[in-house]
Amino acid sequence: MTTSTDRQIWLRYLSGPDIDSLEIPTAAVVEAIDSVVAAHGRGETVFEPRTHLVPDNGGVGHFNVLRGHVSTLGERGVSGVKVVGDFVPNYLEGLPSEMAMATLFDPYNGTPLAVMDATFVTEARTGAMTAVGARYLARPDSKVLAHAGARGTAFSNVTMLDSLFDLDEIRVTSRRPESREAFGEQLRAATDTPVVVVGTADEAFDGADIIVEATRLTEPAPLLRREHIRPGAFVVPYGTVSAVEPELLDVIDKVVVDDWAESRSGRFGALRHHVDTGLLSPETLWAQLGEIASGAKAGRETAEERILFWHRGLSILDVALAHLVLRTAEEAEVGTMLRYR
């Protein structure tokens, strides 16, 4: 007689090169994120706000721990946990500033399904969330994209937005000249849209239709200011340490977040000051993006609205994209099968 302890359990391990070999299309990533955002709006997901592990390491970095479940994935749904390090000085060691591992589980019996390098998941889901936000909240005729920040999710942000809009110009900047110049060259190799590298956030942001602030500040500084935001602009600030002018919301018509509970959690985030002081509250918040994606609330209603979208990175996005990676790897028979027991 076979007992539960006699049953072999295998899981799929996917390395970074394994995932790179899959060449998952940008459109598939964006659609996976759009779908899970709508599921969140319908109440078909479960997640807990991220927690932070801050080692005694002199302040060089910290870990984020994200946990989530999506009922609409596969026949049984999928649960997952991701741990991602955020270490800004890593470039000095030739390492990415963000490295992550993700695990997926069967939610009915706890069986581990996969362990994977989640660097791609982190970068792609962040860029896709920016793009999905723009799909609902930016003007369809947006022509100028400005992006501050050149590492981590920057490439995904720009290329995924470029895939959705008929842009005339992409402006990029970052603190270090060598970093922004290299980013500009990387983008020119990936798109036909003209890419302009500028020296300051003021030059990048001024009058742009879509503004993404993804800087890696160590101390708050008002890089994104009211004077940059013209009528009709779509603004996405999501740096870990705020680069947002405290008075910025005075000129914003609608503020949308990925999840209000997540917005209130932790000590980091672009609008942390605004939440902590009550400038952003349930009364001043327009909607969660899932409410808009599921049709419960309106997104952009006029061409003149200035709309700000703050997304902190929901665990359910990691679960949805990791599931897409796993499903694609299973079909391609990519990865290493590891015996769990």
TrEMBL record:
Statement: the UniProt record of this protein carries the keyword Lyase: yes
EC assignment: 4.3.1.12
Keywords assigned: Lyase
Listed GO CC annotations: cytoplasm
InterPro entries the UniProt entry points to: NAD(P)-bd_dom_sf, ODC_Mu_crystall, ODC_N
GO molecular function, one term: ornithine cyclodeaminase activity
Gene3D superfamilies listed in its UniProt record: NAD(P)-binding Rossmann-like Domain, ornithine cyclodeaminase, domain 1
Top-level enzyme category: lyase
Protein's recorded name: Ornithine cyclodeaminase
Upper classification of the organism: Bacteria, Bacillati, Actinomycetota, Actinomycetes, Micrococcales
Gene from which this protein is expressed: ocd
